Amino acid sequence: MRRKIIEFLIVFIAFILQCTVFKAVNMGGISPNLLIIVTAAFGFIKGQREGMYVGFIAGIFTDILFGNGMIGLYALIYSFLGYLNGLFSRIFYPEDIKLPIFLIVISDFLFTFICYILTFLLRSRLDLPFYLLHVMIPEMVYTALVTLILYRFLLGIEKGIEEKEEAE
Amino acid sequence: MARLNLERRKFVIPDRYILLIVTGFCILLMLLTCYTDAISMPLSMVASYTVVPFEKGLNTVGRKFEERLSELASLKMVMSENDELKEEIAKLKMENNQLAEDRYELNELRTLYQLDDRFKSYETIGARVIGKDPGNWFSVFTIDKGSDDGVTVDMNVISGSGLVGIVTEVGDNWAAVRSCIDDDSNISGMVLSTSDTVMVNGDLKLMENDEISFSQLTDIDDKVGAGDEIVTSNISNKYLPGITIGYITSVETDANNLTKSGTLTPTVDFRHINTVLVIKNLKKSKGSVSSN
Predict the structure, then answer these.
(1) Which of A16, A69, A123 comes nearest B169 by C-beta?
(2) With an 8 Å Cβ cutoff, is A83 touching chain B?
């Protein structure tokens, strides 16, 4: 239960930072995706179930405030990404930073690509190379940079939770 | 993990079934919220008391930070701009005199025709921008006024210089606004000088140049050109008439040789938008549901 509450708080803080401070420090109109970092990280550190839980919360917040009247779409996408990242928890080692970066970048790409298909391609915005160069790739790079800083921090929190759990 | 649990404890639902349940739940939510408002109301209440208060506080921090950054960057620009502006002031003073004369004439004519001064009658409420869409695809932002302050869906949002967008969602103490540079935004506009109607569409591709596109302009006499003002049209059923959207930067004839399209620069600086005005008057239309 404590784990769930702490995870909820982390997503909550990430969401608020994402909507305010990280939008203010954008580079050329592009800001990194904190929610993806948190979702993917809990996925590959702790497994499918936690990934889904964190992803669902991240998505539902996005849906309520920015979902344009339809709630559930982002919750679904984030839950799936959390689950997919959870599949890699078996080959995940905390000391190795290559796999986390790789997984987060791939997750971010998947996320923006799904967003592109559902919200742009279906409205016949066909110029994929443009969107790839101007939205998706900059976001991936920026997200990877933020991951370098944030990953250790998330890992530290996770270790803290585990120690508490073991002590009980 | 799951397999181990199966052996040790009684019964644990496998993760893939949970994923299935979550998927079903999300799709159900999507369908429900798409067709009714029954669920979105309580959910937006949740947002009103969790996210919004924090956003309000934190956004002031973000804004301060952004202001500091842009202050440093713009100091040099300001110096050179100052000289230019001084020249412009002289020009504008001349123009102002002329306009004052025109205004005098206009007032006279108005009283003659007994026209109302439309814009004075709009009731507005000031609001602060407190959060922006977390993704990079859309230009939706939240403001700190909601249904408690009388804001409802479809109200027009303006800033000092022109149209900002339209309210799409409302909570108790927040509202989501889709700005007119958003890729999903379609506004029925009008070229002020010729009264030709156009469709003004936001476009992510043009956002880098701070422009938006317009299309379906029928201008047989080639009268419309760069610099013409585009305002919201009087036949739009969501936007109040006569609000400035921007000025045309380029016009091109379409492949069909009948209509024209092009780009315009909005008068509002969407990169540094902090405070907006919500017009509380709604456009009266025949109970229409369709967009624009």
Answers:
(1) A69
(2) yes
Beta-bridged to residue B276, according to DSSP, are: B127
* Å between B4 CA and nearest CA of chain A: 14
SS3 B230: strand
pLDDT band at A106 (very low <50, low <70, confident <90, very high): very high
Contact criterion met (CB below 8 Å) for A142 and A124: no
State the Rg of chain B over Cα. 24
What's the CA gap between A88 and A48, in Å, rounded? 9
Query: Which residues of chain A from 29 to 58 reach within 8 Å of chain B, CB to CB?
Result: 29-31, 33-35, 47-49, 52, 56
CB neighbours of B241 closer than 8 A, spacing ≥ 6?
Answer: B118, B190, B231, B232, B233, B234
**Model confidence, pTM:** 0.76
Choices 3.30.70, 1.10.1760, 1.10.357, 3.40.50: CATH for A2-162: 1.10.1760
CB proximity list for B270: less than 8 A, separation 6 or greater: B139, B164, B179, B181, B210
B39 touches chain A (CB under 8 A): yes
In whole angstroms, what is the distance from residue B153 CA to residue B147 CA? 9
Classify B216 as helix, strand or coil: strand
User: A24, B26: Cβ pair inside 8 Å?
Assistant: no
Report how far Cα B4 is from the mean position of its chain's Cα atoms: 54
On whether ipTM exceeds 0.90, the answer is no
Cα maximum dimension of chain A: 56
User: What are the pLDDT digits (tens) for A43-99?
Assistant: 999 999 999 999 999 999 898 888 777 888 999 999 999 999 999 999 988 888 889
Here the tokens at position A120 are 């742009």
Query: Considering the domain B123-282 in this protein, what is its CATH number?
Result: 2.40.10.340
Cα Rg of chain A, angstroms:
16
Nearest to A71 among B23, B43, B50 (CB): B43
CB distance A24 to A130 below 8 Å: no
Domain boundaries in chain B? 13-48, 123-282
A62 near A15, Cβ under 8 Å? yes
- Which residues does chain A have within 8 Å of residue B66's beta carbon, measured at their own beta carbons? 24-25
Contacts of A34 in chain B (CB under 8 A): 134
Check: CB of residue A86 under 8 Å from CB of residue A47: yes
CB of B277 within 8 A of CB of B127?
Answer: yes
